[in-house]
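Build the 3D complex.
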Amino acid sequence: MIAKRLIEWGSSGSTIREIAAYGEARAAQIGAENVFNFTIGSPSVDPPPCVYESVERLMRTLPPTQLHAYAPAPGYESVRQKMAEHLNRSFGAAYRSQDIYMTDGASSALAILTHALLGPGEEALTLTPYFTEYKLYVEAAGGTLREVPSDPETFQIDLGAVERALSPKTALMILNSPNNPSGVVLSRESLTALGRLLEERSRIYGHPIYVIADEPYRELVYGDVEVPFLPLIYRDTIYCYSFSKSLSIPGERVGFLALPPTLTDYENVHAAVYGAGRALGYICVSPLFQLVAAECLGKTADLSVYEKNRNLLYGALQGMGYQCVRPDGAFYLFIRAMEQDAKAFCRRAMEMDLLMVPGDDFGCPGYARIAYCVTTEQIQRSLPVFEKLARSYR
Amino acid sequence: MIAKRLIEWGSSGSTIREIAAYGEARAAQIGAENVFNFTIGSPSVDPPPCVYESVERLMRTLPPTQLHAYAPAPGYESVRQKMAEHLNRSFGAAYRSQDIYMTDGASSALAILTHALLGPGEEALTLTPYFTEYKLYVEAAGGTLREVPSDPETFQIDLGAVERALSPKTALMILNSPNNPSGVVLSRESLTALGRLLEERSRIYGHPIYVIADEPYRELVYGDVEVPFLPLIYRDTIYCYSFSKSLSIPGERVGFLALPPTLTDYENVHAAVYGAGRALGYICVSPLFQLVAAECLGKTADLSVYEKNRNLLYGALQGMGYQCVRPDGAFYLFIRAMEQDAKAFCRRAMEMDLLMVPGDDFGCPGYARIAYCVTTEQIQRSLPVFEKLARSYR
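Done.
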């Protein structure tokens, strides 16, 4: 008996990949330079030199049976130690190597954590808009994802909405800042208020409400913007990180999760993470790339093009009458569709070879996501098409 | 509410890793050359030159944002095409690129397939002895693993035992040949008889019984031994392969599963595999290493040392009075413990710094697994210790 849900998840695929595939087919017809594909959030800048240098040095110096051998399930001790030290140095935290569990990017950390932390019938909250796959991770773990609308003016936390969504069934909340797809960075003020609310409710319900801080875009912020380190604001926060965006190596799948030593019920959560990792088929993170990530800690690809792109595109779209919350991070703009149905809006854009993803996919109908991790030149050349699209609605 | 099962799976870890960790600690005390560690099934020979050549060439010729970018979830079309062609050429099969789904080694293929194919309350059968993690994959998917004893004289299929274990609840059977931990290769004769039985029962029950053929050790066979290609014997077989052992790159996690075009309910299984992959947090296999695997198809590391080790160790142990079914493949010997309790037997060996894994971990008490993927020299020097252990029981 094949689960209907899995068939649905498998055959719908993600709208993002479908539109991207259309874009590729179209590019073959009319030339890639004539298709303005803003669908895929894949880094467009080269990894920093340290990535190549590390790969080259490791392959030259380590015995190959060691370099490509099974690594311990939670990662090499030396790598975990370095991750912990980096967090402690950067944020004043107090992680130990045993608190770090290396993962295949943030996605596997999220799948492992939802399985570890959610019992049947329990709920996970997340703010809209949110990364599509959260729903799958939560439901595959037997839980229910409850979407909590953000403040529609700012995409910051609407504390009243969180308050109304919380219940004794709430076991988990997933936060993503800088946010995919809105680019918004959650403010210290709103996180502090949220932390107080969750502490109070944990006390009332008599069980912890864990927070997963999903932060693969942490380094992609522009201007003088703080990305508060949530584990120091709310005690029961599990931090998830991926090197996909900061080092431009999304395909190689390297990241980690960090359990704070003071986490409620630490021993059981720790064991359940290990158990979930085994049960979901994860054996280890690539030994080569976990060593590379450890050697490149604190370094990033040249991220300046993303800021340049954001400024160019955000400014131009505003001038054309598009509405959009100013994104302080990640590489996404989340614009209001110019008609009620964002899918129809994106279809009309698609007929102009301008490809965006409707917000419906992010639990936020009425919007469209533009992934501006492309060349600045593509953005420049797309502006007349954005203008044409806007004009068609006037 | 943290699932008790996950806590158990996480805190028990695997006995294998525990004993291996003891071995490492002991090696630090008395010197690695004085600890005879036969616990871990990790390749001891270098990858073939094509692995390095491919890594080097790919890193030199492909733009890095492409080489380390997100690959499509099921793998690159070109890679899947090559995998299909290789199977077709090697075995006379008829796979198409869309039948291949690249996975993080065989473990993730197994986790994905158990989730895709097992409904709540359904059963998966496997023959004892079997790879420990099968139980986790099956139970995490909501099913029950039913252990079917093999013929104790040969570790071949005991058809009567399978017959007795089958029921309308049987949705799946997992086979592993060459077998971890016994090293036994299932014969064409026994697989043909099994195929007939499963066909008959599928008809009677009115639903397919899928077989997963887990074959990461396919190339590690010694002498004139056939490893029959099960998908051509039994129609509803899904083939799982890993490059971990053949290319000596277990840490890099590259493998695939192959759905035969004639599989019962193909479309739904295909979609459920994609859905399960998404839901378990898998994004893609390393683009670098899936390209490397495709370039190295048909090549293997120099596996001759394993045959040499098997001959040396199997011969010597027989001479000392150990009982063991002659293993034709993989790199394991599965000996009878010299007392009823294999854990006590392994503890006594451990006190002599000889490390093996008790068969209890493989659903087969009374035996111990020796992983002979070590240097031939280690085997030679361990023989007096094996002799001492045997003598202690005389």
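The longest helix of chain B spans residues 188-205.
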